[in-house]
Amino acid sequence: MLKQIWSKIPRKSSKSESAESTRNNDRNSNNSARNTQPQSNGGGGPKRTAVFPASVVAGIEPLVPFKDVPNSEKMNLFVSKVSLCCVNFDFTDHTKNSVEKDVKRRTLMELVDFVSSSSASSPSSSASIRFTEPAILALCRMCAANLFRVFPPHYRSNGGSSGGDGNDSSGNNNNDDDEPMFDPAWPHLHLVYDLLLKFITSSCVDAKVAKKYIDHSFLLRLLELFDSEDPRERDCLKTILHRAYGKFMVHRPFIRKAINNIFYRFVFETEKHNGIAELLEVFGSVISGFALPLKEEHKIFLWRVLVPLHKPKSVGIYFHQLSYCVMQFIEKEPKLTSTVIRGLLKYWPITNSQKEVMFLGEIEEILDAINMVEFQKVMVPLFWRIGCCINSFHFQVAERALFFWNNDNIVNLIAHNRQVIVPIVFPALERNAKSHWNPAVLNLSLNVRKMFMEMDDELFLSCHSHFEEEEAKVILAAEKRKEAWELLENAASLQPITGNTAVLVTPLATSIAC
User: What percent of the chain clears pLDDT 70, i.e. is strictly above it?
Assistant: First the structure.
């Protein structure tokens, strides 16, 4: 009897314990499913049996409209809808998962409308809802699952703004049939980008909370997307990065450093990147907000990043944005003008006429804003280079250099320093006036020559006489050199031919009578 009773006690307790443990396990599994589901959906883990994941919040159906739930449940519904959008689809096949794709698209549109309406309402109104930390976390995971991806290999040899085989020396595509490559997933991607932009700019998002999830890792992955070949994606990224830089002040130094690293890699290593123009456009607005006096960090950025960015062959793709950034620095601190001009002279494109025309345009823009002190620091090497451009056989280069004298500010600077500048430029003008093949360049050279004569007649005559003397010396040296060669040829022709001695072949010996 005792054995029977004793044997029953463990079975009874084990049954109750097992029942209790079963209830606890069910409760724990439900809680763990709620907590871990966004991670499994956002990452590359195994997917659930359903096409869309189950609701993150128990009792909340993700397809329910926001208007059908009370304000107290809207954040839970927001998390459920965001988690539903973590599933990715193959957009290369339009017939695959078409229903599910449409559901995701409509859900993303609903989320964009919800965030926009929350931001539009005043913080004190009843319609205003503050985004909770789980909602911010869920949105960041959804954006990471949809946006952060590896781009397919470049099927074209030019590779965007790389200046490679498909580009000419000025960075322009030789093949006019090449068009930008558009991502087939853009119908969903642009909604995700729009949602992220609305979310970052929303007044209902606390920056102190959001910065924990839009952190350095998130921003680095976002910057990597600027290498996309789709110009629509780069344009969205440009706006988002600009808004993130404005909202998260704590991340500003890191963003600047990360962009600098992209520029360094582009200039000194690869010369291949599709988003340099967009990144420079973002930096243009950043530079305009720099406080005065400029920090040493910002001056280093000008000298080590912006000036060397003139070097790559593909500079024509981002030249306007680059010039704007440089001018922003000069307007902030005019003392940097001479530094910029020396840098441009260092990277001057000797054999690339199209880049040379662009450099001349930037030089003119800088000279239009330069002061006299900075101008005098660089006027000798600068006008020596301009003189070389005036003598260029490429008519566009020579014409662009001569157009400097159409600018009243530059003419005024030259007039005040004519004793130094005119002797440097005068020989180039005289050579053009005598022998340049292009009529437009010839006429412009004569006009500038006449302007110098009217500016200072005595200096003009002095330069002209000096030029004639130098030309006479050059002609005399050429005649002496010719006579020396003739003597050598005559002496060589009188030597007997023995062994392997080289034989001088005269023009008469090789002439053939027709």
Answer: 78
